[in-house]
Predict the 3D structure of the following.
Amino acid sequence: MARFTRQITASIKAENNKNDMTIIILSAGVGGRIKSNEPRSLIKIGTKTLIEHQIDVINKNIQEQEIIGVFGYAIEKIIKKISGKLRVVENQIYDQTNNSESLRLAVNNTNKGNILFLHGDLYFNDKTFSNLNYKKSFIVVDSKGMMKSKEIGVTIQNNKATMLSYGLPVKWCQIAFITGKELKILKNILYKLQGSQKKLLSFEIINKMISMGANFECHEPEDMSIIEIDCIKDLKNENFNF
């Protein structure tokens, strides 16, 4: 009976984590390799812009959650397109900083007890968010070659991430959920960001968290499709027909 009670309690805790969550979209950079005058968020894929697609998928699969978008380059254009669909935070020094500063700004602008952040250049399907476990902090990974070979990979031991780095076969999908002890560690890191630390990439922040005792489980959602929009040829990827 006690075992059953613990299982129910864990399930309720997981649901509470999901209900008390901010989703953060990190999309402040220029995205120069696209060779477009538009910010990457406003790249048109089919009938929607990339940011509209991300918002629609999130709202469909993680309902009634706060969404924060961190933007910098051409922010006025983005606000005009997505006004009322999410809360906008501006990284005014986007050209001098990186994801660590954008993440700091977003975390400072929410009072929710849990966060899920993702990169703003990702095009994904519903299945990417349909079966995630919010009991503990996690990162989303890809072992099927959907993320490019040059992207950041992850070493995994007992289903936990031990290090994120280049040149590893299992890739990090640039999506992370942070709760509990890990959120406290993240806030401690972000509070102390100064100088060159504001140029840290998100995977470097996660590595720093792991070195300070954070634990990230690795989830690979079944039937997930995910693409990083990095250059013009990515727009011709057949997986856009999800």
